[in-house]
Amino acid sequence: MTHMTRRRLLVSATSLFGMMPFAAAAQDSAPTIHVVKDRNCGCCAAWVEILRNAGFTVTTEASMGTLLIRHKLENGIPQAMHSCHTGEVAGYMIEGHVPPADIRRLLAEHPDAIGLAVPDMPYGSPGMGPEYQREAYDVFLMRKDGSTDVFSRYEAA
Would you tell me which CATH number, out of the four given (3.30.310, 3.40.190, 3.40.50, 3.40.30), belongs to the domain 31-154? Predict the structure, then answer.
C-alpha cells in the first residue's frame, strides 16, 4: 500500500512539473496594465478588480491632483478625454472606465493611436455601478494628432 502511494505521488509530481512551462506561458501572455490612480478612489479600485477578473495582470501606482493630470497630459491624453484614472498597456494609454473587451480589441487590432478613453465617469461603465442600469456612453480611440473617433458605443440599459 505504501509503495502504491509513493508511485502515485511520483506520477502526480512528474505531471505537475511537465505542466509548469505551459502555466508560465499562459501567465506571461496575460496583458499587464499599469494603472495610475488616486489611492482613495473606490471606482478606480473596482475597475482594477474588473480587469483582473477579465484576465489582465494589473499593477497600480498612487497619484493625485495635479500630478495625475500632468501624467495624463505628458502621455498625450487630450483634456476633453480625462477621467479619474489612467492605465498603460503595450504602449497604449487607457483613460477612464474602458471595458476589458475594448482593451483586448485595441491590442488585437493594434491601431496607430495613443489609446482608448471613456471621458468623465458614465454610470454603469465598468467600476461605475451596475451594468443593467448603464447610461449610454462611447469609448473613444485617441489618435496621435489629437483627434478622436468612436471606437465602441454602449447603449443605455
Answer: 3.40.30
* Four-CA torsion 155, 46, 40, 139, nearest 10 degrees: -30
3-state helix, strand, coil in the chain (%, to 5): 40, 25, 35
Element (H, E) at 17: helix 2-29
Residue 89: its H or E element: strand 86-89
Burial of 95 (0-12, 13-18, 19+ CB in 10 A): buried
Q: Which residues of the chain have pLDDT under 50?
A: 1-2, 4, 7-27
Q: Residue 99 corresponds to which cell in the numbers above?
A: 471595458
Domain locations in the chain? Answer: 1-30, 31-154
pLDDT tens figures, 84-118: 999 999 999 999 999 999 999 999 999 999 999 99
- What amino acid is encoded at 114 in this protein? I
The span from the CA of 28 to the CA of 20, in Å, is: 12
